[in-house]
Amino acid sequence: MPEFTMHYFGLYARAEPTRMALAHAGADWHDNRISNWPEVKASMPNGQVPALELADGTLMGQSLAILRFVGMKFGYMPTDAMEAFHVNYLVDRFQDIGGLYYKPVFAAEDAKEALYTQIFDDALPKFLAEIDHYCAKGSWLVGDKLSIADFTIGGFYANTFKNPACYTPERWAALAEKFPNFHAYGERFVAENEKYLSSRPSATI
């Protein structure tokens, strides 16, 4: 049995930052993309996924707790208290908009345009302007090495801006042009994780 098994659906969404971290670390892990959810739901922590299973059978729930665990395990969390604050701030701040950009995938057709306006004209421009100085100051968001903040925000770039299966690709491209520091940062992240990104299954979001 592998050291880690990641249980989630065939989406990127909430599991992908941890998948990326495990892949980048070269961990012994298995990506279990669930196709029989009604049968396994009761066995998952709080009946939810993502869930991370350890080799001894321990099941860990809550996506951010899992990501932080993996970050600590493989050196993607700073030991400096202030740097750790900034990493956690960025991860937590992203959650304010993270649930919004999934919505068009599941929305009715007549509701999508209003969501696009909210996402591309309001929520994302505000967020990207707020983190611009993090993107501009170095290779990675905090310090000189990858952190869970990068797998969260750089991963977001890979899952949307660089994902040809994502909705309205022209809107993502136009937004990237408005934020060149974020765009350049996202390209660095994609290049750093090319091995995993080029081989992972396709998903809309």
Let me know the number of strands.
4
The arrangement of helices and strands along the chain is EHEHEEHHHHHHHHH
Counted by DSSP, the helix tally is 11
Distance between the termini: 29 Å
Q: Largest sheet, if any?
A: 4 strands, mixed
CA gyration radius, whole angstroms: 17 Å
Arithmetic mean of pLDDT: 97
**Sequence stretches where pLDDT stays below 50 over 5 or more residues:** none
Q: What percent of the residues sit in helical stretches (DSSP H or I)?
A: 55-70%
From the spread of the alpha carbons, the general shape counts as: globular
Query: What is the strand content?
Result: 5-15%
Strand order in space, largest sheet: 2-1-3-4
Q: Classify the secondary structure makeup into a structural class.
A: alpha+beta
Structural commentary:
This protein is α+β, with helices and mostly antiparallel strands. The protein is 56% helix and 8% strand. It has eleven helices and four strands. It has a four-stranded mixed sheet. The radius of gyration is 17 Å and the shape is globular. The two termini are 29 Å apart. The mean pLDDT is 97.
